[in-house]
Amino acid sequence: PDAREEPHFRVLHELEFNSDRKRMSVIVKSGDEVLCVTKGADNIMADLIDRPFDIDTLEHLTRFSQQGLRTLVVGLRKVDPVFLKQWQNDMRAAQNTVDSSRESKIAEVAARIEAGLTLVGVTAVEDRLQDDVPRAIHIMKEA
User: Is residue 58 packed enough to be buried (19+ CB in 10 Å), middle (13-18) or exposed (0-12)?
Assistant: First the structure.
């Protein structure tokens, strides 16, 4: 039998999705290793991944989109402990900002840890309509 233990991850930070960012990230710790794991829209993630998408990835994204599936790209990076400490201080300062620049400061700090990601993969899910949406569309067409 395999005596390896499953890894345990502790969430250090969550960078929430919003319509401007079109991505979300978690910064997690497992043992001595800290990772930033990010998922988001392919057009946003393309700029965050450390190299251009290869042909296979582009073909998968195209095929999934043509099938009407919602695609997400997943990337990750290892986070250096010294960088993490400075980043946490900067994020805390941004979150404590009380003027109109607060959101832009938070976004700028978040973007620093989400840069230079390594592509993990692409997901595709069917984004089904909520139960009442077809009925609502029908009512609007009849109006």
Answer: middle
